[in-house]
From TrEMBL, chains A, B:
InterPro entries: ATPase_NBD (IPR043129), ROK (IPR000600), WH-like_DNA-bd_sf (IPR036388), WH_DNA-bd_sf (IPR036390). The keyword Glycosyltransferase does not apply. PANTHER family: BIFUNCTIONAL UDP-N-ACETYLGLUCOSAMINE 2-EPIMERASE_N-ACETYLMANNOSAMINE KINASE (PTHR18964:SF149), ROK (REPRESSOR, ORF, KINASE) FAMILY (PTHR18964). GO terms for biological process: D-xylose metabolic process. Transcriptional repressor of xylose-utilizing enzymes. Keywords: Carbohydrate metabolism, Xylose metabolism. This is Transcriptional regulator. The lineage of its organism: Bacteria, Bacillati, Bacillota, Bacilli, Bacillales. The keyword Hydrolase does not apply. It comes from the Bacteria.
Length: 396, 396
C-alpha cells in the first residue's frame, strides 16, 4: 500500500471513531471495534490519541448485563468549538459554540444601519479575535466561523446576494472574514441556520425532517432533512413568503401580486392598520383587538387564518414530522398561540396529514442564529483528523 | 477473518464493481482497480463472474491518449429487469423495464371500475406471469415489481391508504402480488414514480433536483433529490393541490376551503363551465374560448394564471433546477403552453428565481408510470450479489 493511501485510511479511521463516539456516547472500546470492524489495537491507538489531546474522557458505568463497572468513552464537547455570528441591521452578536450547541462565550458589536459592509465585517473580525482571546479559548480548537443574516445568501460563495435589512447587495462576507481571522467561514440565511439549531439540539431534536417557519419582517421557512439543510438550486428553497395566494391581490415589494407575505408580514399588517389608526406597532394593534375594535379584529383574524394556512401548506409541500414556529407575531401574542392550537390542525391542515406532525415553538429564541451558525461551521469544517494533525505538529 | 465477513465483503465488492460499471461505462478493468482500491486479481475475478453470467459485455475502443485499442466493460441493460405496473380506473398496463428504463414488453389488463381489489390484483399477478412467460424473459433476471397508482400510498407498507379513482381504501397491494408472483413488490403514487422516470432517463435527465407537476383529476407534485424521491413523513410530500390559496374560497372535496385544485383540476373547470353551457369536456371548453366566448375565456384565463402560480410557488418551495409538466391540461392545448412560455417566468416566478430552473414537458407521456414503477422496483430490490448467488445455485 502506498504511503498516501495509508495516511488517507489513518485519517478516515480517526474521523470514524470520533463521530461514532460523538453520536453514540457513551460507548466502549469493544463496541467501537465491533461496529467499525477495526482491530482492537487500531481502536486503542486512535482512542489514546484522542484522549491524550482532550477530545474525549472516560466514564465508568455499570453495564446492565453483568452488573460490574466498565469504561466508556464520551466526547468532550469543549474539544471542538466554532464561532457563530448573527447579523442584524443595528448590531452583530458573536458567540463561541461548542459541540453540544452550547454558547460558551458571547460578544456584542454595535453597527450603524447605514454602515458600509467592509467596516462592519472589519469590526466583526476584530470582535471575534477579542472574543477568542478574552474568553481564553484555545485557538486550535476553533474549526471555523458561521454567519447567519437575513436575505438571499449565496452559501457556496459566502456572499449576500441581497439583504434588504442590512442594505447589502452582492456583498462578499466569507472571503473577508477568512482573510482577517484565518478561520474558514460559512455564510447562510438566518432562518436556515436557526432551523439547523432547532433540529439538532432544540425544539425539534430527534426529528427526521423538520421545517422552521419564521414570521417577521417577511415570512420564510427552512426544511432540514436528516440533519442537512435543504437548500435547493440557489439556496432559496422555503421562500414561502413569495408564494402567490391571490394572483389579483395586493402588490408585494417583490413586484408580484398577492404574495403570502403581503397578508402576514409585520409591515403589511401595520400598513393596513395605519390606514385606520396610527398604531405604533404590533402591541398596539393587538391591544385594539382586545379592546373590541372591529377593524383590528378584522386585520388580525385574517392574519391568523393566513398563519394557519402557511402551516397547512408547508405540511402539504414538505410533509415534515415537526413544524417549528418562530418570530414575534407567533411567539408573543397568546391569542395567536391559542388560535394555532385550537384551529390550525382541524381546519387548515389537509385531513390525511392531521397528526403526522407536531407544532412546536423555537427553543432557543434569541440565541438560535448564533447556535445554528456555529453548528453550520462545525458541520462544514469539522475535520477531526486535520485538527489532530495540527495539534500534533504544534506538540500540544 | 470469519467466513461470514468474507462472504459479506465478497458480496459488497460485486455490487461495487457492478454499480461502477453501470454508472461510468465504458470502463476498463484497470480503472475499476484504481477507483475501488481492489487488487487487479479481485477485479478480474468479479468481472469474469459478471461477464460469464451475461451481466456485461466487452467493447473495444481506441484510447484517446495512445491511439491503440483497449478493452472496456459495459453493463448489459437486459441483464436486470423489473415489472412496472400502472393502475387506473378502467385498466392496468404492465411492462417489463430494463436497466436503461426501456420498456421491452407490455401487456394490458382490463378492469371494471367497481371491481373488488383482490380480483384486480389477482388478474395483475396472472398477467405478469403471462407477460414474463410469453415475452420469453428469464425469470431469474427479474428483480421485482413496481406499482404506480393515483391516491395516497403507504410506500413502506405497500398499501393504498386511499385511492378515490380506484375506489380503494386501506387496500394491501404488495403482500398479495408478492405472494402470487414470488417477486418483491414496491408500491407508490403514480406522480412519484413518473417523476423518477423523468428525472432518471426522461425530460429531466442530468438534473440534481427536479419537480414533476401533474395537472389532471387533481393537482400534485413530486420532488426528486439526487435520484431519490422525497417522500416526507407519510409519503405525502408535494400535495400542492391541497395547499390553500384562499381561506374563504370554494369548498374542496377534502373539506377545506380554497384549495389550489379547486381552481385548476379538470373536474372543477368543467363544473364551472357547465353552470353556463353543457360542455362534454376540456376540448369543448377550449373550443368555446377559441370561438371568442367570454365565459370560457374567463374560466380558462383564470386556470392558466393558477397553473403559472403553481409553477412559481413550487419554485419558491423546492428551488429545483428543472420543473417537468405533465397532464392533459398543460400538454394538449397550445394556448396553455404559449401562456406558460410567455408569462410564467416573467410574471409569476419570484424575481431571484427567474432563470434558476427550466420548464420542460414529460418525455415519456403514457409510458412514464410503467417506466418509473419499474425503476422503483430496481432501486429497491436490485441486489446484484444475490442475483449472482441465485444464478450460481441454479448453475445457469
Amino acid at each position: 500500500m502506498q504511503k498516501h493511501d495509508q495516511d488517507f485510511i489513518k485519517r478516515k479511521n480517526r474521523t470514524t471513531v470520533f463521530e461514532l463516539i460523538r453520536k453514540h456516547s457513551p460507548v466502549s472500546r469493544a463496541e467501537i471495534a465491533r461496529w467499525t470492524g477495526m482491530s482492537p489495537t487500531t481502536v486503542s491507538r486512535i482512542v489514546n490519541e484522542l484522549y491524550h489531546l482532550d477530545f474525549m474522557h472516560e466514564i465508568e458505568q455499570e453495564t446492565t448485563s453483568v452488573g460490574r463497572k466498565a469504561v466508556f468513552l464520551q466526547v468532550n464537547p469543549k474539544s471542538v468549538l466554532s464561532v457563530g455570528v448573527e447579523m442584524d441591521k443595528t448590531g452583530v452578536r458573536t458567540g463561541v459554540v461548542d459541540l453540544d450547541g452550547k454558547v460558551v462565550g458571547i460578544r456584542y458589536i454595535a453597527r450603524q444601519p447605514e454602515e458600509p459592509s467592509d467596516a462592519t465585517l472589519g469590526k466583526i473580525a476584530d470582535g471575534i479575535q477579542t472574543l477568542i482571546r478574552e474568553g481564553g479559548f484555545d485557538r486550535r480548537r476553533i474549526v471555523g466561523i458561521g454567519v447567519g443574516l437575513p436575505g438571499i445568501i449565496d452559501h457556496d460563495g459566502g456572499r449576500a446576494v441581497l439583504s434588504a435589512q442590512l442594505g447589502w447587495k452582492s456583498t462578499d462576507i466569507a472571503p473577508l472574514l477568512q482573510e482577517r481571522t484565518g478561520l474558514p467561514t460559512a455564510v447562510d440565511n438566518e432562518l436556515k441556520v436557526k432551523s439547523l439549531a432547532e433540529h439538532t439540539y432544540g425544539a425539534a431534536a430527534g426529528s427526521k425532517r423538520s421545517v422552521l417557519i419564521g414570521f417577521g419582517s417577511g415570512v420564510g421557512s427552512s426544511l432540514i432533512i436528516d440533519g442537512d439543510i435543504y437548500r435547493g438550486e440557489s439556496n432559496s428553497a422555503g421562500e414561502i413568503g413569495h408564494t402567490i395566494v391571490d394572483p389579483g391581490g395586493s402588490l408585494c415589494e417583490c413586484g408580484k401580486r398577492g404574495c403570502l407575505q403581503t397578508y402576514i408580514a409585520e409591515a403589511a399588517l401595520l400598513e393596513k392598520a395605519r390606514k385606520i389608526k396610527p398604531v405604533s406597532g404590533l402591541d398596539e394593534l393587538f391591544q385594539a383587538r382586545r379592546n373590541g375594535e372591529g377593524w383590528a379584529a378584522d386585520i388580525l383574524d385574517r392574519a391568523m387564518a393566513f398563519i394557519a394556512v402557511t402551516i397547512g401548506n408547508i405540511a402539504c409541500m414538505y410533509n415534515p414530522d415537526t413544524v417549528i414556529l418562530t418570530g414575534k407575531l407567533v411567539e408573543q401574542y397568546p391569542e395567536v398561540k391559542d388560535f394555532i392550537a385550537e384551529k390550525c390542525m382541524s381546519e387548515f391542515v389537509w385531513e390525511p396529514l392531521r397528526g403526522t406532525f407536531r407544532i412546536v415553538y423555537s427553543a432557543f429564541e434569541q440565541d438560535g442564529v448564533i447556535i445554528g451558525s456555529g453548528l453550520l461551521a462545525q458541520s462544514r469544517f469539522l475535520d477531526i483528523a486535520s485538527q489532530i494533525d495540527q495539534m500534533e505538529q504544534n506538540q500540544i
